[in-house]
Amino acid sequence: MNINIDPDLLQKIKSSARKSGKSLVEYITDSFQDHLYNFPSEDLEMKLNNFEQRLRLIEENIGSVKKINKQFVDFTPHEAANYSRFIKAIFEREFKSKKYNSSKDAWQDFMTHFTRFDEWNEILTLRLKEIIFIDHADSLTCNEINSLRNSKKCPSPLRTGLINWINNSEKECCCNNNYFPSEKSIGENGTDLISNPIL
Description:
The protein is mainly α. The chain has three domains: 1-39, no CATH class; 42-71; 75-195, no CATH class. It contains nine helices and no strands. The chain has helices at residues 7-20, 24-38, 41-71, 77-97, 103-112, 122-133, 142-147, 157-167, 183-189. Helix 4 crosses helix 6 (122-133) and helix 4 (77-97) crosses helix 9. The protein is rod-shaped, with a radius of gyration of 30 Å.
């Protein structure tokens, strides 16, 4: 069988054969057998299909995260103040209805639903504590609330944390929960929403 091989390629093949301690014929035979038996074309096609499917899923997930993030408009100072009052009112209501032994127990349980988010930090914890336990405390700032929107798990960790605490759940994101007021509604209406029987 005559085969025309590029002279440079032939030199590389000969060099590789010498390095492996095989004759040229043995090296070429082994290479072809490895290729034929270890990489069947069906497996390669299947792997490519799997990669394509995974890539499609990643693209879809990225697209859905972008859509969710676009739904949220930055808070104004008035909305941030309403949100802060809403959080305090929810805490006070749930503290009574869940019959905690102390406000410390309620606080510790409450915070477990917020600190799990990647964008959460100690300053936000202290700010929430201040809002809940100190009368006439400064509200969360627009920047503090808006900074949480960069969370990888959920673009609305304050709302999700509240929902999880109320429902004793541990969902990573509650953005699709239509029963609880939206962030926009909380920002606009604040504590007026507390009388809502769904809450």
